[in-house]
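Try this one yourself first.
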């Protein structure tokens, strides 16, 4: 019987019914040779970056290389122009998995599967960095504002009322306030204004009891009026306005906002009912911000930090962030690779190597 078995196996192999290597594989723990995987990616510094020689590196790329090395997988990279194109390739099976800066969202999870997240971040807000004190534009906006006009008119109205009352009491007892109504009103208004600004009451003192009462009441009232007016101007010239209008996500609804087209940033802004203008790439958005075409640019915080640090020193990244995002690898729905990749991925991101990889590309404050 032992002599017959090899003959049977050889015959079946010739007939194409079995793989002649199965007896050896059954007694060997090494995995059978696998086909070359197609790994889709897209430039998203510092997670996926393509060098001048065509080689790829970055946080996600290095992570995948580590995982693939542990699993002894053969692969090659395939570049996509946009995130939508990359995910479409995964959904249609043109690529075996996608490695970039892909955030996990509900709509995306309906068409592709994701591995366990390997990085948690949020959306950052970029603004112009030259937010130094600039009095001229703020003063100009204040002087032509409706609030300022109302305050001035209120003061003038009070001065006219006080001047009219003072003239009514003093016109027959004080030669400076004599004459017709037009002269009396003008002189009374001047007296009220001079008294309010502490320049003296037109060089005249009231001679009637009614005039003295009006003068006393106006002196006290004018102090309060000036205090209220000063407070209104001070509130219009706060440091917040002098140093810029965007200090957090709550300020975005009142300014011109930019976002990258086809990214999850659009969904986050739409949920908050924040109007925005789209740009094809984050670099285009930052250029528009630098040229003052927009007031703020919203994108994934670590990607913004990298671009600003590399090419846009005149732009600041606010300390605040919002809408937490989770980066993961994308694979076709039902892919048998998901389970084994997950195990190796989790082991890798919990190792000291992962921390060193992050520090290689990111400032420690960004993680």
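Now uncover the answer:
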């Amino acid at each position: 019987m032992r002599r017959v078995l090899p003959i049977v196996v050889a015959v079946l192999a010739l007939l194409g019914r079995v793989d002649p290597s199965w007896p050896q594989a059954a007694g060997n723990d090494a995995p059978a040779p696998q086909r070359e995987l197609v790994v889709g990616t897209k430039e998203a510094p510092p997670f996926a970056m393509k060098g001048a020689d065509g080689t790829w590196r970055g946080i996600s790329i290095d992570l995948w290389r580590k995982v693939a090395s542990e699993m002894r997988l053969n692969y090659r990279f395939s570049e996509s122009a946009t995130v939508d194109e990359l995910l479409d390739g995964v959904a249609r099976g043109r690529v075996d998995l996608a490695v970039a800066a892909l955030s996990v969202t509900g709509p995306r999870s309906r068409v592709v599967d994701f591995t366990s997240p390997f990085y948690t971040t949020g959306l950052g807000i970029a603004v112009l960095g030259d937010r130094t004190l600039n009095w001229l534009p703020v003063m100009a906006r204040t002087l032509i504002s409706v609030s300022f006009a109302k305050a001035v008119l209120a003061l003038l109205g009070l001065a006219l009322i006080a001047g009219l009352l003072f003239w009514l009491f003093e016109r027959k007892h004080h030669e400076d306030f004599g004459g017709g109504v037009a002269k009396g009103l003008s002189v009374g208004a001047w007296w009220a204004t001079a008294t309010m600004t502490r320049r003296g009451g037109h060089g005249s003192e009231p001679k009637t009891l009614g005039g003295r009462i009006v003068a006393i009441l106006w002196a006290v009232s004018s102090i309060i009026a000036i205090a209220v007016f000063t407070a209104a101007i001070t509130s219009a010239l706060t440091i917040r306005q002098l140093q810029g209008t965007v200090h957090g996500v709550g300020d975005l609804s009142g300014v011109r906002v930019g976002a990258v087209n086809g990214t999850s940033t659009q969904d986050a802004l739409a949920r908050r009912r924040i109007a925005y203008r789209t740009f094809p790439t984050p670099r285009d958005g930052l250029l528009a911000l630098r040229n003052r075409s927009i007031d703020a640019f919203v994108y994934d915080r670590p990607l913004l930090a990298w671009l600003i640090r590399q090419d846009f020193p005149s732009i600041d990244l606010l300390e605040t962030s919002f809408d937490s995002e989770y980066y993961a690898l994308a694979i076709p729905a039902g892919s048998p690779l998901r389970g084994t990749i997950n195990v190796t991925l989790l082991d890798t991101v919990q190792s000291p190597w992962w921390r060193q990889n992050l520090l290689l590309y990111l400032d420690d404050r960004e993680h």
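Discussion: The domain at 35-118+328-366 is CATH 3.40.190.10 (D-Maltodextrin-Binding Protein; domain 2). The chain is about 50% helix and 15% strand.
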